[in-house]
TrEMBL record:
Gene3D superfamilies: 1.10.8.50, MutM-like, N-terminal (3.20.190.10)
CDD domains tied to this protein: BaFpgNei_N_1
Organism: Nocardioides psychrotolerans
Alphabetical UniProt keywords: DNA damage, DNA repair, DNA-binding, Glycosidase, Hydrolase, Lyase, Metal-binding, Multifunctional enzyme, Zinc, Zinc-finger
This protein's record includes keyword DNA damage: yes
Keyword Lyase: yes
Protein name: Formamidopyrimidine-DNA glycosylase
GO molecular function: 8-oxo-7,8-dihydroguanine DNA N-glycosylase activity; damaged DNA binding; DNA-(apurinic or apyrimidinic site) endonuclease activity; lyase activity; zinc ion binding
Family membership noted in the UniProt record: Belongs to the FPG family.
């Protein structure tokens, strides 16, 4: 119970987890979609309080157009959440540090805009429950769109195929890899216009499952390797979705972290071969891999660490 008398079930109860393991990707967004669908369908949106004005990326229709609308469904497009209400769509991209928290009872007073607060918006429902859309940290990237068609959101319009859709076949993957030429597999898998929903964590995980270097050129895979990569994509993501299915949203990030094989586990033993998990650092992110499983025992060059050691 909070001081204002309301109760708040936080979807994320830990602030100590590494940020790189907290980025919502396809499996978490899919689980959020299922959770919100059960909570929101058939409910009316009373109003939406905007606390971070920079989060709203559209102006027509206005945010107030959702007041009094009935929620018809909740779906996912890649990493985007889509709440459809009376013909309008509230699309959310949670970016690196965004999340959604369910409230059994919303406070009487709306949230105050503040650069120091993680609050981005509050969705108030007709029965007094609601959702807090939050974003931790100082780098604000969370985005909200009110549109008549999800395709009006540039990020959704540019999405590549969903890797868990029936239409995503081995032939589709082979065509993507050939078209990307000498680009590194890690980057190809993460690029949302190529394949939707895979981020930093799960690209590490499925490359480990496929026993492939993150720096391997996309068009260098033979037929057997394409089949192996395809099986890893469907298997790693599909298993993560199944593990998350039915879980309370407050458990999703913990479930993700506890099942990662290499991502966020630098210096730990690989669960497959026992070798030490290594890391390559970039300006604003990093990747993890197992040398024995993925690179023939050879460590990959970490340019940032090399500069520090000179």
């Amino acid at each position: 119970m909070r001081r204002d008398g309301s109760s708040c079930h936080r979807f994320d109860t830990s602030r100590s987890r590494p940020r790189i393991a907290d980025v919502p990707e396809l499996p978490e967004v899919e689980a959020l979609t299922l959770d919100l669908r059960g909570r929101l369908e058939g409910r009316a949106i009373t109003t939406i309080h905007l606390a971070a004005f920079s989060a709203l990326k559209t102006y027509d229709p206005p945010l107030s157009a959702l007041d009094g609308t009935l929620v018809d469904g909740v779906t996912r497009h890649g990493k985007f959440l889509d709440i459809e209400a009376s013909g309008l769509h509230l699309c959310l991209h949670l970016a690196r540090a965004g999340w959604i928290r369910w409230r059994d009872e919303v406070p009487a007073l709306p949230p105050k805009p503040s650069n120091k607060s993680p609050m981005a918006a509050r969705i108030v429902l007709d029965d007094g429950t609601g959702l807090d859309v939050t974003e931790a940290g100082t780098k604000k990237s969370l985005a909200m769109y009110v549109v008549r068609d999800p395709a009006d959101v540039p990020g959704i319009a540019r999405l590549g195929p969903d890797p868990l859709a029936d239409e995503f076949t081995i032939e589709v993957l082979r065509g993507i890899l050939e078209a990307e030429g000498r680009k590194q597999l890690k980057g190809v898998l993460r690029y949302q216009s190529t394949i939707a929903g895979i981020g930093n964590a799960y690209s590490d995980e499925l490359l480990h499952a496929a026993r492939m270097s993150p720096f391997k050129p996309a068009n260098s895979l033979d037929d057997a390797e394409v089949e192996t990569l395809y099986a890893a994509i469907r298997g790693v993501l599909g298993d993560a979705v199944e593990r998350s299915r039915g879980l309370a949203a407050s458990q999703l990030k913990g479930e993700k972290k506890s099942n990662l094989a290499v991502h966020g586990r630098t210096g730990q033993a690989c669960g497959v071969c026992g070798d030490v998990v290594r890391e390559v650092s970039f300006a604003d992110s990093s990747l993890q891999y197992c040398p024995t499983c993925q690179t023939g025992g050879k460590p990959l060059a970490d340019r940032r660490m090399s500069k520090l050691l000179k």
